[in-house]
Amino acid sequence: MRIAFIGLGNMGGGMAANQAKAGREVMAFDLSPMATAKAVTNGCAGVDSIAEAIVGADAIVTMLPAGPHVRQVYAEQILPHAPKSAILVDSSTIDVESARAVAAQAKAAGFRFADAPVSGGTAAADAGTLAFMVGCDEADFAAVEDVIAPMSRVTFRAGDHGAGQAAKICNNMVLGISMIGVCEALALAEKLGLDPVKFHEISSQSSGQCWSLTTYCPWPGPVPTAPSNRNYEGGFSTAMMLKDLKLAQDAAAKAGASTPLGASAEGLYALFNGLGGSGKDFSAILEMLRGKAP
Length: 294
Ligand code: NAD
Prior knowledge:
51% helix, binds nicotinamide-adenine-dinucleotide, globular, alpha/beta, 13 helices, Rossmann fold, N-(1-d-carboxylethyl)-l-norvaline Dehydrogenase, domain 2
């Protein structure tokens, strides 16, 4: 299978590498030449443009920052020039409306398309163990699963176009809220004279257990793969988390849903982002809650 992979950042880099590791021919492109060069060291063929990447592709996977990037790349580069037989899979986290708009344009142009955002962070992207949440026509799901298999631990068809993004936005609202909860608890443990590492050990086996604590601990030490051990570099940036919390709030406002903790989480991440935390992993909000500068 020949795959065009567009967007080789913190997530896309590892995902493209796993496609290559599975023996697929991966034509990799990122606006950053450094990101493309890294993909080459991981077994991909680096190319200089999207136009070059999509020639003869069986599948095109995009892993871009946000809705406007996806809309632009699809409208200007993929839909006018890709082979009609290529299946199109967008794994970026974007707003439901953009996902549905791109799906409608793709369908009108004769393509199969899926929104297929992911969960699991960069460690899972590198390990090929992401959870995929797919919105697509039922008839296309098997083909989508085949494309994403080397990158995935589990794949769900959430529903029709846009449903994958709806699942992802709701999931990340939980994540933003739970990360702040874990950070508040760690900061309180410290103030109470309880070793935060001991608290991690205890709560990981108690009812406070959650992914933010056990798999992605914001306190350095207990979870070696967590960004807290590398000065909160890489991982899932605060700016990206803020984007997702805004998506959740926009969606909640449109749907008339009440999401007060989601709104608080958005406010706290906006504050941390403004204080200089935007490029740090989102677990670095611990520093703000400990009263330290990012
Ligand atoms: P990133 O900023 O590290 O990577 C995005 C990449 O897209 C960059 O390398 C950038 O140069 C490239 N890019 C932008 N516009 C482009 C274009 N027109 N053509 C080619 N390349 C282009 O972001 P990331 O952390 O890899 O996240 C990517 C997406 O995945 C986001 O939507 C994010 O919300 C989502 N996501 C991230 C994580 C995480 O833990 N980082 C987890 C789940 C989902």
